[in-house]
């Protein structure tokens, strides 16, 4: 079983023959509504075990993509890592795995980037990966979201911008939403994190630092875009906390997690002091938040961290 670390440290220093008690800064920077941050799994940079995206199983275990290794891996509740599958190597250039979602029957869907061979793969429990949608025109698939009610996948393109839609019922693929809200900025990273929530698709833009809501119309088309939050520069992925439209956002380079309220304001609730190392993705199940850190810039301690959410 996991044990939670202490949240403060008191150090006694003796100097110049005098005893002086110094209050040392807290070991953690975690802030309500989060508490008890615990790193449950540490990964290996040397073998490219750097998690890009995460989805959570009903029992609280997790499935992640290791982007550069092109792997889909399962992390049990004790932190044991099991590689479920490896996606194909690139025929030219490089290949990577990014967004991941899970259906109720345990099937996993994963974004695969390999130039003209890019697409979405399906991994059934105990099976092998199979390509179910080709997307040769994308720049860089990143986030992936599932509308389980309609059997629809939504994927972001972080290079060209926009949101692609894939029907799991008809296999139809189309560019569902595009516009300046999804375009890249100076760093060249556009649409990134994506979720389906309360009848809408929500998309984060890393460069612009914005969170955009796109209603899903009755006929399945994209409704009018609205900007729900700004000032989230560097946001990678995000997840809803389960309390209205409040979200937790992974701020990659800064190694922070923001709590973003429905009015668009945000506060920092986790930092590197809690164990974050360039967080790439967030998932929430019940009262637990799961944050995967890819350590793309620190190159130190990619990991999976859990924290409790008080509502």
Structure notes:
- With 311 residues, this protein is an all-beta fold.
- It has one domain: TolB, C-terminal domain (Neuraminidase, 6 Propeller).
- It is built from no helices and 26 strands.
- It has strands at 10-15, 18-23, 34-42, 51-56, 62-66, 71-75, 81-86, 96-102, 108-113, 119-123, 130-134, 141-147, 152-157, 163-167, 173-177, 191-197, 200-205, 210-215, 226-229, 235-240, 247-251, 256-260, 266-270, 279-285, 288-293, 303-309.
- The strands form seven sheets. Strands 3-26-25-24 form a four-stranded antiparallel sheet, with no helix packed on it.
- The protein is globular, with a radius of gyration of 20 Å.
Number of strands: 26
Strand order of the largest sheet: 3-26-25-24
Name the CATH architecture: 6 Propeller
Number of helices: 0
Structural category:
mainly beta
Estimate the global geometry from the Cα principal axes. globular
The CATH superfamily label reads: TolB, C-terminal domain
- Helical residue percent? under 10%
Radius of gyration: 20 Å
Low-confidence blocks of residues: 1-25
Write down the CATH topology: Neuraminidase
Q: Give the CA-CA distance, first to last residue.
A: 24 Å
When the domains are counted, the total is 1
What can be said about the biggest beta sheet? 4 strands, antiparallel
pLDDT averaged over residues: 92
Estimate the strand proportion.
over 45%
Question: Order of helices and strands, N to C?
Answer: EEEEEEEEEEEEEEEEEEEEEEEEEE
CATH secondary-structure class? Mainly Beta
């Amino acid at each position: 079983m996991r044990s939670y670390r202490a949240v403060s440290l008191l150090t006694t220093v003796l100097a110049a023959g005098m005893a002086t008690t110094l209050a040392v800064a807290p070991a953690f920077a975690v802030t309500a509504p989060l508490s008890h941050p615990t790193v449950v799994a540490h990964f290996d940079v040397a073998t490219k075990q750097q998690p890009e995206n995460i989805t959570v199983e009903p029992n609280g275990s997790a499935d992640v993509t290791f982007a550069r290794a092109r792997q889909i891996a399962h992390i049990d509740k004790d932190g044991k890592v099991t590689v479920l599958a490896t996606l194909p190597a690139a025929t030219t250039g490089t290949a990577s795995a990014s967004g991941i979602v899970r259906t109720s029957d345990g099937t996993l869907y994963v974004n695969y980037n390999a130039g003209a061979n890019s697409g979405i793969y399906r991994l059934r429990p105990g099976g092998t990966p199979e390509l179910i949608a080709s997307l040769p025109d994308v720049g860089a698939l990143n986030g992936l979201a599932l509308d389980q009610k309609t059997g629809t996948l939504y994927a972001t393109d972080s290079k060209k911008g926009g949101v692609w839609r894939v029907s799991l019922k008809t296999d139809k693929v189309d560019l569902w939403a595009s516009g300046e809200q999804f375009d890249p900025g100076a760093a060249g990273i556009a649409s990134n994190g994506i979720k389906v929530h309360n009848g809408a698709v929500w998309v984060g833009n890393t460069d612009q630092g914005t969170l955009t809501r796109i209603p899903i119309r009755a006929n399945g088309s994209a409704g009018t875009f609205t900007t729900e939050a700004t000032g989230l520069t560097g946001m990678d992925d995000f997840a809803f906390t389960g309390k209205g439209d409040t979200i937790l956002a992974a701020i990659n380079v800064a190694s922070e997690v923001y709590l973003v309220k429905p009015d668009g304001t945000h506060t920092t609730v986790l930092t590197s002091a809690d164990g974050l190392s360039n967080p790439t993705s967030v998932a929430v199940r019940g009262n637990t938040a799961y944050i995967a850190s890819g350590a793309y810039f620190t190159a130190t301690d990619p990991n999976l961290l859990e924290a409790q959410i008080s509502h």
